[in-house]
Design goal:
Blueprint lengths: L1 E5 L3 H10 L4 E6 L3 H10 L3 E3 L11 E4 L6 H11 L4 E4 L7 H4 L5 E6 L16 E5 L2 H12 L5 E3 L2 H30 L9 H13 L15 H13 L3 H17 L4
Parallel strand pairs: 1-2, 1-4, 2-3, 4-5, 5-6, 7-8
Antiparallel strand pairs: 6-7
GO molecular function, one term: oxidoreductase activity
InterPro entries: 6-PGluconate_DH-like_C_sf, DUF2520, NAD(P)-bd_dom_sf, P5C_Rdtase_cat_N, TM1727-like_C_sf
Protein name: F420-dependent NADP oxidoreductase
Length: 259
C-alpha cells in the first residue's frame, strides 16, 4: 500500500517505521517541517507542511495527531483527498468525527504506550479497527493482521471504554511509580529496589482479577499504618502525595468494604 501520515510524533513514528517494512510511506505531514523531515528521512518519504502538497495518489492516509486536532485535520483533508481511505489512531475519538466530513473513514487504534526511545512489540499489541464501508474494513483488517496477532473490530463506544481504562492502567499507574520514586529519592534510597515488586504486581494483574489480589494496609484496614504513612508525608512537606495516598486508600477500603 501507498501510505501517508499526518503527524510526526510518537505514534506516527512507530507506525511509519513498522509499516515501511512492507509498504511505501509516501509523505509525512507536519506543520513544523523540521519534525516531518526527521521522520520522513527514516522511512524514505517526502516531508511536507502544506495540505496543497499532499500526494492524492495514495491508498491510505493515517492521522496521528492529538485528539483535539483531529477535527481540523479531517476538515482540511476532505478537500484534497476525495476517494482516499482516511483513518485516525485515537482511542477516544469517535469514527463519526471523520465520517461527517469524509465517508471513506476508519479507525486504526493501537492500544499501547509509545516512547521514542523504546521499540514496540507489534505482534502482541492489540489493534482496534472500525470503518463504515465493507471494503475499507477489509483493507484495515488485512493491514492490522500484518502487524498484530490481536486484531479486534470494536465500536467507538467500546474503544472509548478501553481508552479510559488505559488511563488508569498505564498513565495513572506510571504516576504512582513517579510518586514512589520521589518518596525514596528524598531518603537517598535506590528506586531499583522496587523493580521486582512492580513487575510482580503487573504480572499478577494480567493473571488474576486485580480486586482479588489486592494487598496493602488499606485492604487490611490497618488504620495505624495508614495514619503513620500520611504523617510521614505531612512531615516531609508533601501534602500533594498525602492527598493522593488518602484518596487511593479510601478507594481501596470502599472497594473491599463487604469482605
Amino acid at each position: 500500500m501507498r501510505i501517508s501520515f499526518i503527524g510526526s510524533g510518537r505514534v506516527a513514528t512507530h507506525l511509519a517505521h513498522v509499516l515501511s517494512i512492507s509498504h511505501e510511506i509516501v509523505q509525512i505531514y507536519s506543520q513544523q517541517i523540521e519534525h516531518a523531515q526527521i521522520l520522513a528521512q527514516k522511512v524514505q518519504a517526502q516531508a511536507v507542511n502544506q495540505y496543497q502538497q499532499i500526494d492524492q495518489n495514495i491508498d491510505l492516509m493515517i492521522i496521528a495527531v492529538s485528539d483535539q486536532a483531529i477535527a481540523k485535520v479531517i476538515e482540511q483533508l476532505s478537500i484534497y483527498l476525495k476517494d482516499t481511505l482516511i483513518v485516525h489512531t485515537s482511542g477516544s475519538t469517535s469514527l463519526e468525527l471523520l465520517t461527517q466530513y469524509h465517508p471513506k473513514s476508519g479507525v486504526f487504534y493501537p492500544l499501547q504506550t509509545f516512547s521514542l526511545e523504546r521499540d514496540i512489540d507489534w505482534s502482541n499489541t492489540p489493534l482496534f479497527i472500525e470503518a463504515i464501508e465493507v471494503d475499507d474494513l477489509r483493507r484495515l483488517t488485512d493491514l492490522a493482521n500484518s502487524l498484530s496477532n490481536h486484531v479486534y473490530l470494536y465500536s467507538s463506544e467500546q474503544r472509548l471504554s478501553l481508552h479510559l481504562a488505559a488511563v488508569f492502567a498505564c498513565n495513572f499507574s506510571n504516576y504512582c511509580y513517579d510518586m514512589a520514586k520521589q518518596v525514596v529519592d528524598a531518603q537517598q534510597v535506590d528506586f531499583g529496589l522496587l523493580y521486582p515488586l512492580i513487575l510482580e504486581t503487573a504480572n499478577k494483574a494480567t493473571q488474576s482479577d486485580p480486586k482479588r489480589v489486592q494487598t496493602g494496609p488499606a485492604v487490611r484496614k490497618d488504620l495505624n499504618i495508614l495514619d503513620m504513612h500520611q504523617q510521614m508525608l505531612s512531615g516531609s512537606g508533601r501534602d500533594d502525595l498525602k492527598q493522593v495516598y488518602a484518596l487511593l486508600s479510601q478507594g481501596i477500603i470502599q472497594r473491599h468494604e463487604s469482605e
